Amino acid sequence: MAGKRAKFLHFGLNFIENGLEYHRLGLVVQKRFWPAAVARNRIKRVIREWFRLHKGEIARPPKDIVVIARPGAERLSPGDLHVEFSRIFPGTGK
């Protein structure tokens, strides 16, 4: 079973079916792009909140999803992130 990759403006995604009953989320927010822990933690917090609210709407089968933040992600408001992730995961924009 092979995973898949996708690149978007502010994020890269890796995902693979996990054989479980639920989706899992992993985050990569690199110190080289955001030396301040405050910036890294904010990005992670906003992504985790989006995932918490929308994980039930992500298409099945359940997947392990790794989100890799790219430069510019720190400027996204929670609303902007919601719009971008709704494009990445169709059906979650409700």
Please write out the topology:
Blueprint: E1 4-7, E2 11-17, E3 24-28, H1 37-54, E4 63-69, H2 78-88
Parallel strand pairs: 3-4
Antiparallel strand pairs: 1-2, 2-4
What does this entry show, briefly?
The protein is an alpha+beta fold.
Entry keywords:
single chain; 94 residues; alpha+beta; Ribosomal Protein S5, domain 2; 4-stranded mixed sheet; 31% helix; 24% strand
Q: Judging by the overall fold, what is the CATH architecture? A: 2-Layer Sandwich
Mean pLDDT: 90
CATH topology: Ribosomal Protein S5, domain 2
Q: Report, as a whole number of angstroms, the end-to-end distance.
A: 31 Å
CATH class: Alpha Beta
Oligomeric state of the chains?
A: single chain
Radius of gyration: 13 Å
The overall number of domains is 1
Strand arrangement in the largest pleated sheet: 1-2-4-3
Please, could you describe this protein's structure?
The structure is a single chain. With 94 residues, this protein is of the alpha+beta class. It has one domain: Ribosomal Protein S5, domain 2, CATH 3.30.230. Helices cover 31% and strands 24% of the residues. The protein is built from 2 helices and 4 strands, in the order βββαβα. It has helices spanning 37-54, 78-88; strands at residues 4-7, 11-17, 24-28, 63-69. The chain has a 4-stranded mixed sheet, with helices on one face. Helix 1 links the parallel strand 3 (24-28) and strand 4 (63-69). The radius of gyration is 13 Å and the shape is globular. The mean pLDDT is 90.
